[in-house]
Amino acid sequence: MEPSIIFVDDEINVLNGLKRSLYAAQFKWRASFIQSGLEALNVLKSERCDIIISDIKMPGMDGTELLKIVKKNYPHIVRFALSGFNEEELAIQSSNTVHQYFAKPCNWDLLREKIEPVMVLKELIVNQKTIELINSGDVVPALPEIYYKLERELNSEEISIHRIVNIISKDMALTAKILHLANSAYYGTFTQITSLHQAVTMLGINIIKSLVLYINIFNFVNKNPRIKDYIEELWTHSILVASLSKQIMEFFTKDRAKSEKAYIAGILHDIGKIIQLSILLRLGKENIYPIDESESKELLGATHCELGAYLLSLWGLPKEIVEGVLLHHTASVIESNNISIHSAVQLANSLADLKYEDPYVLDAMNSNELVWELIESIKNGQGTDTIMGNTG
Question: What is the pTM of this model?
């Protein structure tokens, strides 16, 4: 069944422009063009919809109110917003309602670039309830200790961007949220923001403060020691994978931008495991966690790779980072001077897993010897089994 999309805007010229763009692009989905929020709700009562894209500033029922109702009554629908008003407060107020913002006038090519990955990855998740929970925007628990540290820094007399970045980089949910907003066209960015320092500098301290308040209030917090310990262990692993991914990409490409993307993909690569845990907690089944991939597929309808990639695609993160999360357990061929983000993350993840099994590997990683030895073996056409086997 072909996907269905609804566009809502009170300006008929905007809708006609979208119609022409879709026709010129030979758009294959079923599309409806509606001029008010109330009319859109009436259509949703009788028609299936996968994605709704609404203008924010409309007479009567505005886009924010419309999308709040859609979120509550139709949680399976992906919610995008169009806005010609660059207002920080509006973005914060709607951050729990809208998956992505697009600036008006919106280029259809940009819309399609963001929409298509969402629909492709959504198809990988066969459990409708899982999709609804992810779309709700509140399934990524965070480490409260990091929030406390960040709030103290933000409330200090001399705020340091460097210290803020260091704190944020240790928190998966907060990192993803900041990159989500930084990459939104709503903020007028025309290039992908892949450096957390760039994102913090661009968004500004007031936006960061608002994000901290939002996540502290709405994000899941559980004080169960077993869960807390597991998340902290996962964080240690994710930070190591991020660091190794960056080193590997730097070694192969000497490209700072690609190395930063590899770091971000590395730190977010297991975000799907946090989603798994959050959903199981909601279902009252946290006692079965952690679960293997076959169990996750059966119970939740997706692997942790698919869950993480889908969430990040909803937030509009760059394609290479989404692929790094989706494919980090998929082995690939690494050629000299040509390595993908997901290849770097996959290799880094393998190395990080070895860290916990053999003291020799820990020592080697601390001095980077194993990293370079393994990379050299790959560049010379050898496999990884020999090198990994030497660690015992």
Answer: 0.76
